[in-house]
Write a structure and sequence with these properties.
2 copies of one chain form a homodimer. Chain A is built from 19 helices and 19 strands. Chain A has 502 residues and is an alpha/beta fold. The first copy, chain A, folds into 3 domains: 8-93, Beta Barrel (Barwin-like endoglucanases), CATH 2.40.40; 173-247 and 277-408, Pyrimidine Nucleoside Phosphorylase, Chain A, domain 2 (3-Layer(aba) Sandwich), CATH 3.40.1030; 420-501, Pyrimidine nucleoside phosphorylase-like, C-terminal domain (Aldehyde Oxidoreductase, domain 3, Alpha-Beta Complex), CATH 3.90.1170.30. Chain A has a 6-stranded mixed beta barrel. In chain A, strands 13-16-18-14 form a 4-stranded antiparallel sheet, sandwiched between helices. In chain A, helix 6 (148-160) packs parallel to helix 12. Chains A and B meet through strand 2, strand 5, helix 3, helix 5 and helix 11 of A and strand 2, strand 5, helix 3, helix 5 and helix 11 of B.
Chain lengths: 502, 502
């Protein structure tokens, strides 16, 4: 049911960033606003130049910035509709998406087939479902604790609505870490080692959302990471591996939409985690995936029992979808590596690959463990994979492979160095008893990370270290003196970042 | 955990209506935007003049309409913060609301106590929960099919976080209709009859959201309805009854927030319906409530079985909270009364109260049934209530009481008459087989209802009527010729509004 069209308005850019939500700004006296009520999340279809997009309606009541005969688009809407200057557009109220009834069915407790999940995923990526509809869908899935067959159906649906890569190899490896630890930047090292061993490992990584650095942010200080699918394919075919930003290749667009809504809800659901991870891996063409699960009291996974439950379901869903999942437990009790922030973490990676004497040992050991386990996914005897990993790392082959991957991605770069830095020293002598990862992350962000890639902090101590009064606990890096002062001021009010007890 | 404050910006009005969502527009180079990531539904606390409000952040990247040193507020944010011109404000990121963990507990399947529900409701009305958090909460409640004791806890929490009225009478009556039929404007008549019988009936009603008229819209053409609590109390103490807009008295603010999110989700949940209805009635101080349930294939309640299930739970929760719920089943197979639109419906009400010969019989009979049932809630014998209702209506006492209530609410008015009208005639002879309430509602809205109170339509036929080619089926009323043309054009493309079969 649609209202008579009849009103064409010129489109302008509102210059407002609403994150990923497309918003259309219409005057209160426009036909759409007059003929229809205005409700929370009112949805309007904007059509121009043969393209159409569902936008959230915001009504301009006053302020003069929107002239008569004009409608404005938020940045997200502008990017997706790509109107030319002075293009005319028509507007009509969007009816409820067809799959909304499937979401209600899920809320009412029905099991859905992969066809039904696919309808929801298609509407989700087309923007036909509002954030509150997606939130209701996610809450219902969590509330009903989907069993493995339904997780399989959901994962399959997420894969189907996106692109799937195929490779000329029967074995395609990958790894995924559940709940990252600060600074735990093993991925570039693992990819270099595995690719240096002649295996395929087409890795996509994420940028930071709430953390001071994601793998893609750190990697971006070493090489371009915003490759499209064709470029990613060329890199992997030439070098066996890559480390690119998942957002630019868009391998699981449904997952991107779900994660956007799920993150602020902070749900802890194995089903969503499994569907998210496996949909991306299957789309990347992987056949064997290592699941790294750091276990610790403040890590995402808090007990071995929880790790076993997750691992069992992940394996079962993987098997149903033709992908082998290997499980790896690791220590999640404290940060790994001594740096937080894109460029600082990248330097740790280079130090390990370059076998430098000051390279963080914990990062090296963890990367070797993981690379070994990845290599053993395809049937090698236990220990054999790790031995090969040590060999290619110590021989410099991994370093060469990493440089080759960087070149293939568009050219290797030197990570930037921050213009300002300041140490934080121990106020008293004692032993480092606790380290608060959240506070450390906040300090790094106030210093400017990840927007300023050089910003962040270096940790000089680990749990259990003995420190003397006046010894540096960390060094804060920032591009401006204002941000440095910000970060240090925050640190002074949150000394729990590194707790030293007498 | 908060970031260092330190940035004060001048507040201006953005002139953007985002419905009830408070939005703050900050420049991309502001401290809050720089020190924090930007996420879907990022929440910022705006503080000015001792008041603070959680707003959704929209980032102004361009466009020049927001100067340096300035932040803009959406209409909803402006109304709630009430800054004076050139007031300065500070900004910081809002941490997750404490009750968000209770929402997650609900999603994970835990039962919540009324204390926990109260925490969620308090955060909801304070704006500390985002719409997606509220959507997740609602979905979880529906998914878990709350049992009566938990519905009781939720209802109690909703009452506790708002104001509750008390009256100097042990019996306070009310009525609620589940799922309105178009034109079914019985409430003003029922209130007049019940109050004329000397009973208390403090009625609050809603405005239209998606329909062409709510009871408050129709009543607003006859008297002021935007009374505050003190004024409502004065009217009821003087005349025994009132018909005011619920939005202005704000008796169940938690319900107002939940309904805003729930409506676009279109959940069909007895638990939410019961909590919504009873929280408002208890807050209004009612002791006896009649629940009118129209049953029909296209009504909200489709079977007697469904009506019985709802009625049983409503009664149980009512009893637990000390309020008696009476149940009333009515015919939900077709519209009631012959008018759609605020002023046209008001005229039908006046015709019934004034015993005019052309008054719609179905509206009169239904109002008498309901008023009788309301009067019988307090122990009168079956039939006695209806007999008294007929008596006060036919004697003119109900009409006098209605006029007195209108005067007490601020003065009786004459409903406006639309400047333009046009008949829609039968294209062929035959019998009226179906009437599509949704299409009729859309025609009335395109004609301008409810924004133009005089707009709407009069129906000249009912199901089963025999019509001849060229006979008028309905008359469309509009304030402008453009809107009249809009409505008629829509009608021509949707002749299913009134389906005449040979």
């Amino acid at each position: 049911m649609s209202v008579p069209a009849g009103e064409s308005l010129r489109l302008i850019r509102a210059g407002v960033d609403t994150y990923q939500e497309p918003v259309v700004y219409l005057r209160a006296d426009s036909a759409v606003c007059r003929s229809e009520g205005f409700e929370a999340q009112a949805r309007v279809i904007v059509e121009t130049g043969g393209r159409s997009l569902v936008c959230t309606l915001n009504v301009v009541t006053d302020g003069g910035w929107l002239g008569s005969g004009v409608a404005a688009l938020s940045e997200a809407a502008w990017r997706r509709l790509r109107p030319r200057t002075d293009d005319l557009a028509t507007f009509r109220h969007a009816e409820a998406a067809e799959s909304a009834s499937r979401i209600r069915a899920k809320v009412y407790g029905q099991s859905l087939t992969h066809i039904e999940y696919e309808a929801i995923m298609r509407d989700a990526i087309a923007g036909r479902l509002s954030d509150i509809e997606l939130a209701a869908f996610l809450a219902a899935c969590v509330a009903q604790q989907l069993e493995d067959p339904e997780v399989t159906a959901l994962t399959q649906a997420m894969v189907h609505v996106g692109t799937t890569l195929t490779w000329h190899s029967s074995v395609v490896l990958d790894k995924h870490c559940v709940g990252g630890l600060p600074g735990n930047r093993t991925t570039p090292i693992v990819v270099a080692i595995v690719a240096a061993c002649g295996q395929l490992i087409p890795k996509t990584s994420s940028r930071a959302i709430t953390s001071p650095a994601g793998t893609a942010d750190a990697m971006a200080t070493l090489a371009p990471v915003e490759l499209d699918l064709a470029a990613m394919r060329r890199v992997v075919e030439r070098e066996g591996g890559c480390i690119v930003w998942g957002g630019s290749v868009g391998l699981s667009p449904a997952d991107d939409v779900l994660i956007r809504v799920e993150r602020p809800l902070d749900f802890d659901s194995n089903a969503q985690l499994i569907a998210s991870v496996l949909s991306k891996k299957i789309a990347a063409g992987s056949t064997h995936v290592l699941l790294d699960m750091p276990v610790g009291p403040t890590a995402k996974i808090r007990s071995f029992e929880a790790a076993r439950t997750l691992g069992k379901s992940m394996s079962a869903v993987g098997t149903a979808l033709g992908i082998k999942v290997g499980l790896h437990l690791s220590d999640g009790t404290q940060p790994v590596g001594g740096a937080i922030g894109p460029a600082l973490e990248a330097r740790s990676v280079l130090a390990v690959l370059g076998r430098e004497t000051h390279a963080p040992r914990d990062l090296r050991e963890r990367a070797l463990d993981l690379a070994g386990a990845v290599l053993e996914l395809d049937g090698a005897r236990p220990g054999e994979g790790r031995a090969r990993a040590v060999q290619v790392l110590d021989s410099g082959l991994a370093e060469q492979k990493f440089e080759a991957i960087c070149e293939a991605q568009g050219g290797m770069r030197t990570p930037p160095v921050a213009r300002h830095r300041a140490p934080v020293v121990a106020a008293a002598s004692g032993t480092v008893r606790t380290i608060d990862n959240r506070v450390l992350g906040r300090i790094a962000k106030l210093a400017g990370a990840p927007a300023d890639p050089a910003a962040g902090l270096e940790l000089h101590v680990r749990l259990g270290d003995r420190v003397e009064r006046g010894m540096p606990l960390m060094t804060v890096h920032a591009e401006t003196s204002g941000e440095l002062a910000y970060a240090l001021s925050y640190q002074r009010h949150h000394t729990s970042a590194i707790d030293v007890e007498p």
